[in-house]
C-alpha cells in the first residue's frame, strides 16, 4: 500500500489536482521503491519536498509500537512523453527502535499533508513540462501537526542508511541581517533592533520595501553572506 493510505487514495487526489489546473493530457501516479535521489533517466525531472521534511506516523508490524517523525522524505520522479505523463514516488521508511530485529515500516500521513504534497507536485509538473512560472510562495507548507519527541534516529531510517537524507539538503540560503535605526538619522544612535531573515530571493527588494515604510531607516543595504 502507498504511504498514508491506499495507492488509490493518492491517485484520486492527484487526479483531482491535475483536473484543477485544467490539464487535458493524462497523468499517472505510481509507486516505485527503486527510485534514487539524483539518478534520473533522460527526460525525467525530480521533485522532493525540501524543508521541513514531511511529518508522518509509523506503526511497528511486530510489537505495534507507534511513533511520529518530522523527517520523512518523499521522492518524486516525473516525465512527459507523447502526450501523457508519468510520476513515480518513493517514501523512505523507518524501523522500530524497540524491536531487536525490526522491519522497515511505511509512513502514514494525514489527508491534509497528502493534499499539500500533491498540490506542490502538480505545480512542479506545470513548471517543468508546461513552462508555467511557479514562485516559492506558490508552494504550500507542510506543517508538523503534532509534537515529535527526541532526535531523528538515523540508524533506523531507510533514507539515512542509503545515504539519501544527506543528499536531500535544501539549496543554500542567504542569511540577511538588517540594522534598523530610528527615523531621522543614524548619528549617535544605536540600532533600534536587528532583523534576521533566511529568505533567499529578492533581498534588495525586501530592503527597499522596508525603507519605503518611512518609519525606520536602514543604515545600508543588507549584507549578504552564504552559509
Automatic annotation (TrEMBL):
Leader peptide range in chain numbering: none
Gene Ontology CC annotations of this record: membrane
Stored SMART domains: zf-3CxxC
This protein's UniProt keywords: Membrane, Metal-binding, Transmembrane, Transmembrane helix, Zinc, Zinc-finger
Any one GO BP annotation for this protein: detection of chemical stimulus involved in sensory perception of bitter taste
Compartments reported by the entry: Membrane
Principal location listed in the UniProt entry: membrane
Pfam family, one: Zn_ribbon_3CxxC
Membrane topology: Single-pass membrane protein
3CxxC-type domain segment(s): 53-163
UniProt xrefs under InterPro entries: R-trans_p, ZAR1/RTP1-5-like_Znf-3CxxC
A GO MF label: olfactory receptor binding
Protein name: 3CxxC-type domain-containing protein
Organism of derivation: Calidris pygmaea
